[in-house]
Amino acid sequence: MKTNKPSDNEAKQPDNAKIQNLDPHIADATGELLTTNHGLRINDDQNSLKAGERGATLLEDFILREKITHFDHERIPERIVHARGSGAHGVFKVYKPMGDVTKAQFLNDTSIETPVFVRFSTVAGSRGSTDLARDVRGFAVKFYTQEGNFDLVGNNMPVFFIQDSIKFPDLIHAVKPEPDNEMPQAASAHDTFWDFISIMPESAHMVMWAMSDRALPRSYRMMEGFGVHTFRFVNAEGVSNFVKFHWKPLLGVHAVAWDEAQKISGKDPDFHRRDLWDAIENGDFPEWELGVQIVPEADEFKYEFDLLDPTKIIPEELVPVQRIGKMTLNRNPDNFFAETEQVAFHVGHIVPGIDFTNDPLLQGRLFSYTDTQLLRLGGPNFHEIPINRPIVPVHNNQRDGHMRQTINRGKTSYNPNTLGNGYPLQAKVSEGGFNTYPERIDARKVRARSKSFFDHFSQAKLFFNSQSDPEKNHIVDALSFELGKVTVPAIRERMLGILSLIDKDLAGQVAFALRLPVPKSLEQPINHSVPADGDPADFESYIFEGSLTSSEALSMANTPKDSIKTRKIAFLAADGVDAASLLTVKAALEGAGAVVEILAPRHNYIVAENDEKIPVSHSLLTAASVFYDAVYVPGGTNSVATIEADADAIHFLNEAFRHCKAIAAHTDAVQVLEATYFAKKMPADFSDKSILAEGVIVGTDTDGLADKFILAIAQHRFWEREKPRKVPA
Ligand code: HDD
Question: Is the minimum distance from the CB of 370 to ligand 1 under 6 angstroms?
């Protein structure tokens, strides 16, 4: 299949062992003739074979039949969860050998760049749904190591809704569109989801995360990732430590506003996909550090929570996150279907040095992932699909099945054998053979949940208490929105009861928005996770106050805010713009790593005061403020007059203000700001002051306009603006 033509990616996007491993499967038709799937050259691809020019099409037309048959079969079942996703290639490198805790080679050899393929996703929506749904984001990483594939199949939130995998189908049935009318798409704001949540107290902690701004990332490049479960590291001496995995984005963790998310969903449902693609195309390669929290086996019972409970984090104050390596995504896929759609992740893909724990959510996942690929990818040979192949050789006695690609030579496909000289041989541990950690087990077979899992509230409280005021307000708004979409009053009331166990003030504010009475303090939430013969009293949550009241790492307000790299800044300009006031600020922002786009009433270009032709990225028709992180209005008499009179431009600025973004104007363009709604509501005198409201800047280059603007953009958002009033935009 290989045609030895360089792919579009090759020029600027780096090669690695996995890219080379994909190479023989790349097809490129540039300069080639059209053929059937069997290599026959096609002479007429425009007309089917007919009985006469105006006659019926003949069954004999094998070219038509082949083409239509293939087309009819082009779709495969979408993933039941995480159907909507975007992928990228990259590399991972460990900073220092981690041999004291794990023998995994890729975490020890600092000279190795391990190829990775990452797929980010939403959970609830279909494959064609919007990127900006309020949802958890999948963060799945396939490491193609020298010891086989290791998949870290995580999310952008460190906990989960349920404690036992047997509840997963229920959770997903509840959140997916309702079965009678298949509504709503990619949204949890409906009866069945909140019905389920309101009687599953174990979900309280995860619900706080899902209602926070973490569910509305600004970019996949600006999200944390988490392995969620406690895993095991095992070193060469066989000593095991518990480990939690983290991904820390170097660009910081940032979110958009809910109003903005909804608007983006209409204007560009591919917003996150485009953002990731464009960043990689521009050479702005996204980076994350891999972090680990290590807990010695001896400390298994040291904490107030159970390490095996996936609804709990290990607060970073208790066990710091050590940053042990860096992942860089540096190459876009060549083909979405072949790579991003067909990639098959599995939490069960591990390498020597990494092992599982008995987390009951993880245990069920160990079954689910291979099973789902059998249906989705059509049979047991999905590991042979190029993107899923390891970069090391595969030898075993598995044979045949649908779409088998490998041509296994020889007579033996069994072990032990003598006819094939015993090959393939089992690998000794010293040769990299995997041996399971010999955890001691002495137990009865029971269907039960450990009592140590019954604290459902302490970490929900910890999360809420750790948020900044604007973040808390956003959680109140999110719950008011979601429960406002619920049509059954009893569900809303039950949820208020749950919220009252997390924070009285939170429950009170949501109750106010729903115009319901503030719930009385619940003794016990209703819990339907009780077996038929179980006594509900045995399943009571203990309403626990954890000893830690707040944790800095849980608030996005504490994320690094020192860079404007890759941020998108809109310049609103028209004919007659003062080229200097546009180009100097543009150069300063680009110098700091931002991406500047010039928007004008009409497409293509504008003519500056000095007759210079300046290219335009978008007209105001195809752009929108929600696609940008900040906006600037340069000077120039005619340009300023045109922008001031343009309703779309004024709407753009009002909306940017509403979404708390940095706004700047050249002193000569101050009348544009004066035409906005927010200026009318602000007492400041625009012509005198250089900083009017937080993040609204007016000035000239001589008084440091560009520098002040850069500092403001790095702040990401001025959420405090939401407090006094919302701008109607
Ligand atoms: Fe899952 C996909 C993450 C619990 C069953 N899961 C899937 C993906 C991610 C996660 C990121 C998309 C992978 C991709 O991009 O292809 N899942 C999680 C996390 C969980 C979790 C972080 C909890 C900590 N999942 C979970 C449970 C089950 C599943 C408890 C079932 C018992 N997940 C699946 C699945 C999917 C999947 C049905 C759908 C498509 C796929 O696997 O390949 O097997």
Answer: no
Architecture of domain 561-722: 3-Layer(aba) Sandwich (3.40)
- Quick one: which atom of ligand 1 is closest to the CA of 228? 24
pLDDT tens digit sequence for 639-650? 999 999 999 999
CA 123 to ligand 1 center in whole angstroms: 9
User: Which of 22-31 are b and which e, b meaning 16 or more Cβ less than 10 Å from the residue's Cβ?
Assistant: beebbeeeee
Annotated catalytic residue 272 = no
Residue 122 CB less than 6 A away from ligand 1: no
Task: For residue range 652-685, list pLDDT tens digits in order.
Answer: 999 999 999 999 999 999 999 999 988 887 655 5
Query: What single-letter amino acid sits at 416?
Result: P
Architecture of the structural domain at 8-72: Irregular (4.10)
Residue pair 495/470 in contact (Cβ under 8 Å)? The answer is no
Ligand 1, residues 365, 373, 383, 387: which to mutate, most atoms within 8 A of Cβ? 365
State ipTM: 0.99
Dihedral angle computed from the Cα positions of residues 41, 47, 51 and 54, in that order, rounded to the nearest 10 degrees: -160
For the chain, domain boundaries: 8-72, 85-188+213-388, 561-722
The active-site residue, picked from 9, 16, 82, 383, is 82
Residue 677, annotated as binding a ligand: no
* CATH class of segment(s) 85-188+213-388: mainly beta
